[in-house]
Design brief:
CATH superfamily of the largest domain: Dihydropteroate synthase-like
Strand order of the largest sheet: 5-6-7-8-9-10-11-12
Shape: elongated
Largest sheet: 8 strands, parallel, barrel
CATH architecture of the largest domain: Alpha-Beta Barrel
Strand content: 5-15%
Number of strands: 15
Number of domains: 3
Number of helices: 17
Distance between the termini: 17 Å
């Protein structure tokens, strides 16, 4: 059972009835951990577990047809739970089980959630109270189709409103057509321009928010008939801000206030203080923060910056943020803001730490790498009888485990040389390519303290891309590098350990 990058939902089929008998299927490697978890969960949830340990090391490498030929379900069993990563249709097992069959979580550490034993403080996790305004920069330079496609992508990532960033010189004759297309496609639209003609055309076409208004254009705001963002004439002193807010209020124009966030080195700390000053002076005013001034103008991956600024906004009562995705290190800012706003809402409203809650925001590292002892790896090496390798990344070294072989090194080149010195010269080009690919992943995992699992993608939080398993095709070509040699009738990707059967 392997970990999934996103929070695991409590299944509607999870067992809650008292004293049901549930039969769990696993492999040798996961057996001790599974039994430990079940010894705690059984009495808590109210079921009697039985465990069948299949003759294979890694449970995730099994297929349902292979399991169906070996399944032994005790009489009186109410339910059969397979490892979540098992491939194949469940009906193959259902036909021989005599009881309902389901997939459990991919990571056995999430069995608590699977059986409805979620942390009580996460029972209602997910709500948020910060609007995400996603800016499309230099929109006049793009085609209408490109703008629409970008808006749809941003909306899918969590944007609530699409902001059209105009060029400073103004004069975008096609703004009305673009706004109309976006509104017809279901988007809320804002226009970021000081050009009165651009703004008028945009709001007449359906834009519902104007960025921005100060003393230079405040007199036009009443004619637009929509909400605006009030900004100071001079951000460093807030000059003109309160006068603009008062004029908008007298004119009956709905407004949100943005004191303007400054980049680091140009008054960043003081600008944060001005948000606090405005909140104290205008305790009920709607406020906005343009967080792109930090994410776009700082040499650092954007996720952490976004979460910190969202946390500030949540505590101060700033209910909208403006973000963009121009610079390459901020290309997922909208998604990060969507995940981050839920995390900070949870932390602030529940008065709890934003820790061990949202794994999808941990993209560079891993939450908690899983490790095996040297003793366990030595036992595995002594038990293996097939010619294939198992790869582990443990305690700063890559471990290559095979038949009567356990090599370890932090350098994959040294590891490959040691493999040759050990007399394993039967590696063909396809096998070498496979080993090189997996060893490269293992080095990356060690470098970043990530969890490495052979034949599976490294976890990058919300950026994780599922890895296509090529085990069957490699094995069909006679490549020994696939984790398992495969039988022609039901081939899974992966290799059995010594003396174990091949799925």
């Amino acid at each position: 059972m392997q970990e999934h990058p996103a929070p695991f939902p409590t299944l509607s089929t999870a067992v809650t009835a008292s004293r049901q008998r549930i039969h769990f299927v696993t492999g040798r490697l996961a057996e001790p951990s599974l039994r430990e978890v079940l010894s705690r969960l059984g009495p808590t949830v109210g079921f009697e577990p039985t465990v069948q340990v299949m003759n294979i090391t890694v449970a995730a490498l099994m297929t349902t047809p292979w399991i169906s030929k070996r399944l032994q379900v005790p009489e009186g069993t109410d339910r059969v739970v397979l490892p979540g990563a098992v491939s194949g249709p469940l009906d193959a097992v259902q036909k021989v089980s005599g009881a309902p069959v389901e997939r459990g979580p991919e990571d056995l550490r999430r069995l608590d959630e699977y059986f409805g034993q979620q942390r009580s403080d996460l029972a209602d996790y997910g709500p948020h109270s910060i609007e995400i305004i996603a800016e499309i920069n230099h929109a006049p330079r793009m085609t209408n189709d490109a703008i629409l496609a970008e808006a749809r992508r941003m909306r899918a990532d969590g944007a609530d409103r699409i902001d059209l960033g105009c060029d400073p010189e103004g004069g975008w004759s096609g703004v009305a057509d673009v706004v109309r297309r976006l509104v017809d496609d279901g988007h809320s639209v804002s226009i970021d321009s000081f050009d009165p003609q651009e703004v008028t055309a945009a709001v007449q076409a359906g834009a519902s928010l104007v960025l921005s208004v100060n003393s230079t254009n405040v007199e036009r705001a009443a004619d637009w008939g929509c909400e605006v963002v009030a900004v100071p004439d001079v951000p460093a002193t807030l000059e003109g801000l309160y006068e603009t807010v008062e004029r908008l209020d007298r004119a009956g124009v709905k407004a949100r206030v943005d004191p303007v966030l400054e980049p680091i080195g140009f008054g960043f700390a003081a600008s944060l203080g001005r948000y606090l000053d405005v909140r104290r002076r205008l305790p009920t005013a709607e406020m906005m923060m343009g967080i792109g001034n930090l994410t776009e103008l700082t040499d650092v991956d954007s996720a952490g910056v976004n979460v910190l600024l969202l946390g500030f906004c949540q505590e101060v009562g700033i209910r909208s943020v403006l973000t963009t995705e121009v610079i390459h290190w901020a290309k997922s800012s909208v998604k990060e803001c969507d995940l981050g706003r839920r995390l900070v809402h949870h932390a602030v409203t529940k008065r709890t730490l934003p820790k061990h809650v949202e794994p999808r925001l941990i993209t560079l590292r891993s939450g908690k790498p899983q490790q095996y002892s040297d003793t366990a790896l030595d036992r595995l090496a002594a038990a293996i009888r097939d010619p294939n390798f198992r790869i582990f990344a443990e305690r700063g070294e890559i471990h290559l485990v095979g038949r009567d072989l356990h090599l370890a090194s932090a350098d994959p080149f040294q590891l490959f040389a040691a493999l040759s010195a050990a007399g394993r010269n039967d590696i063909d080009p396809s096998h070498a390519f496979y080993l090189g690919y997996e060893l490269s992943k293992a080095v990356t995992a060690l470098t970043l303290h990530k969890d490495y699992r052979q034949d599976q993608s490294l976890e990058w939080g919300h950026l994780t891309r599922p890895e296509i398993a090529h085990g069957p095709s490699r094995a069909a070509a006679g490549v020994a590098g696939a984790i398992d040699p495969v039988a022609p009738d039901d081939p899974p990707p992966g290799a059995p350990a010594a003396g174990e059967e091949t799925p």
